[in-house]
Amino acid sequence: MARSRAAYEYTEAEDKSMRLGFLLIAAGLLSLLGLGCCWLRPALQERGGGGSTNCTVLAVRQLGERFACTFSCGAACRGTARYPCLQVLVRTPRSSAPALLHEDERQLRTNPKCSYIPPCARDDQENSENVTYKQKYWKEKVGSQPFTCYFNQHLRPDDVMLKRTHDETVLLHCFLWPVVTFLVGVLIVVLTICAKSLAIRAEAIKKKKH
């Protein structure tokens, strides 16, 4: 009886394998739940309220107003600089009124008045040069050529974005890796149980032969 009970007990290596499997299962479920509540659901809501359309540049201009940005020059070095406001007005089939173009949803939330926020440099002149370069790009390189832009009814429905913050690849990875972690944990547990079961059967067959 004691030998039979000992045969069904897991060895130290099998016990560690089972713990690892259950740990991966729990981590996968918690990651999927956390990402779903905190990131995936808002991203899907944003995508659900938007779509793509064709845009054509109507006007590119700099406003007289300047906005503050925060630059970093080291671990304990931070400061505030300013940049001019660039506006790119576009035409869309959705409306006869001009729409203001933005880089993406994050830029729209950060500064809804402007179309571009340059990488914040310590020198205001460098920020101005970056904005002027972007202004020339839209005027000379893009011009009147149509391009794909995106709108979002949950933010500012009259504005459009050049690209989405949450694209299909990001959403796929957000869902994929927690599921892979969960499945790897399940696989480890199942293989450990199957290996233990086969070992018990082999031991039983061996005893019958003897």
TrEMBL record:
GO molecular function: calcium-activated potassium channel activity; potassium channel regulator activity
A single GO cellular-component term on record: voltage-gated potassium channel complex
One protein family per Pfam: CaKB
Keyword annotations of the record: Glycoprotein, Ion channel, Ion transport, Membrane, Transmembrane, Transmembrane helix, Transport
Transmembrane segments: 20-42, 175-199
Superkingdom of origin organism: Eukaryota
Subcellular location: Membrane
Keyword Glycoprotein: yes
One GO BP annotation of this record: detection of calcium ion
Membrane disposition: Multi-pass membrane protein
The name this protein goes by in its record: KCMB4 protein
